[in-house]
């Protein structure tokens, strides 16, 4: 087991986390035995050459002459310059180099991942101290263009998931929290994967989280995303995530016609959530009811809706809308009767399935 985060990917065909439990991520197989045999052969050859020179086993002619000449004219001057010339002061540079070579050999042979752990720790430290742009610029200097920063993207994705979990926990608890890390990681991921529609949807979801917790930082994040994506792409995203109240019923009725891109459906869901939380709690009822009716129709499979649910945390946002709607309907005197007690329980997906009047099927389990 290693602490290296896996590459970000969405393996969910729909929104069922039960199916994800038994699904193993793809593994990258490396030829460990061939590497170990090759290293053993090289080390064995070097030991054999050293024994031949030390015992003068070969005659000083032909191959033996070349071997002895290489030892006397190359190895001995190099060794004297590297080690004997400075004496013990050579440990100042020889020690760290030897340790790094040993760690690299350990990782190359598959006995551990010490260098990768150090690299991940350094990247995490830089990301948490607002060095994201410096790290991206350094990788570009090395010639790693967009699409070739797999480890950095994986670390950013891991940090973003942690910040996202903290933000969602704060929303569910009704408390404030700092979204600075959430905004930083969103900007980094948006820059490194600017042209990927799933990443654009995810960044829009993080922007909505920030808007619900700290609107000022969400406004700054919005301007950064517009700068990264460009006016056209950002305008298309904002057109769906900032849907007006009067357009929600028409958009909900349009769910009955398949063919929309899953990313557009996910962005529209975020737009409905925004209106429901910030201004109109009842606006989400028609959207999620129509979504459930279309999602669980047995005659027409809706893969587009299933894929859209996998691109965002669909259950979380449905529960947020439901909680906002119940909080508005709850009398003030009842809410203050037991202060600090959650007097409602969002039903989320269970209620949506009940509205659709379809049995809940998870694997081989049927609710009927």
From TrEMBL:
It comes from the Bacteria. Residues 1-20 are annotated as: Disordered. The keyword Transmembrane applies. The chain crosses the membrane at residues 37-58, 88-109. It comes from Paracoccus versutus. Keywords: Membrane, Transmembrane, Transmembrane helix. This is Uncharacterized protein.
């Amino acid at each position: 087991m290693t602490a290296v985060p896996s590459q970000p990917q969405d393996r969910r065909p729909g929104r069922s986390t039960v199916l994800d439990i038994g699904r193993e991520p793809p593994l990258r197989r490396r030829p460990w035995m061939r590497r170990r045999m090759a290293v053993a052969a090289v080390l064995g050859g070097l030991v054999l050459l050293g024994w031949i020179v030390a015992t003068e086993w070969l005659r000083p002619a032909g191959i033996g002459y070349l071997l002895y000449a290489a030892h006397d004219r190359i190895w001995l001057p190099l060794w004297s310059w590297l080690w004997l010339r400075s004496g013990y002061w050579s440990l100042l540079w020889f020690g760290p180099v030897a340790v790094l070579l040993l760690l690299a050999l350990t990782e190359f042979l598959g006995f551990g991942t010490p260098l990768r752990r150090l690299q991940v720790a350094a990247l995490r430290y830089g990301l948490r101290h607002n060095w994201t742009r410096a790290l991206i610029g350094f990788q570009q200097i090395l010639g790693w263009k967009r699409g070739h920063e797999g480890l950095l993207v994986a670390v950013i994705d891991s940090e973003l998931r942690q910040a996202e979990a903290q933000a969602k926990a704060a929303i569910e608890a009704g408390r404030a929290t700092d979204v600075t890390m959430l905004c930083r990681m969103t900007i980094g991921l948006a820059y490194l994967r600017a042209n990927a529609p799933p990443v654009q949807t995810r960044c829009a979801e993080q922007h909505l989280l920030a808007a619900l917790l700290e609107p000022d930082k969400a406004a700054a994040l919005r301007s950064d995303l517009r700068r990264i994506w460009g006016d056209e792409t950002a305008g298309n995203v904002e057109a769906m995530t900032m849907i007006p109240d009067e357009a929600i019923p028409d958009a909900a009725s349009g769910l009955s016609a398949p063919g929309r891109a899953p990313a557009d459906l996910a962005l529209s869901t975020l737009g409905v959530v925004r209106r429901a939380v910030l201004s109109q709690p009842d606006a989400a009822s028609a959207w999620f009811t129509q979504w459930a009716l279309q999602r669980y129709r047995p005659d027409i499979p809706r893969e587009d809706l299933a894929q859209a649910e996998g691109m965002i945390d669909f259950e979380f946002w449905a529960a947020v809308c439901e909680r906002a709607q119940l909080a508005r309907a709850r009398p003030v005197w009842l809410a203050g009767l037991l202060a600090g007690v959650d007097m409602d329980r969002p039903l989320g997906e269970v209620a949506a399935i009940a509205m659709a009047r379809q049995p809940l099927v998870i694997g081989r389990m049927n609710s009927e």
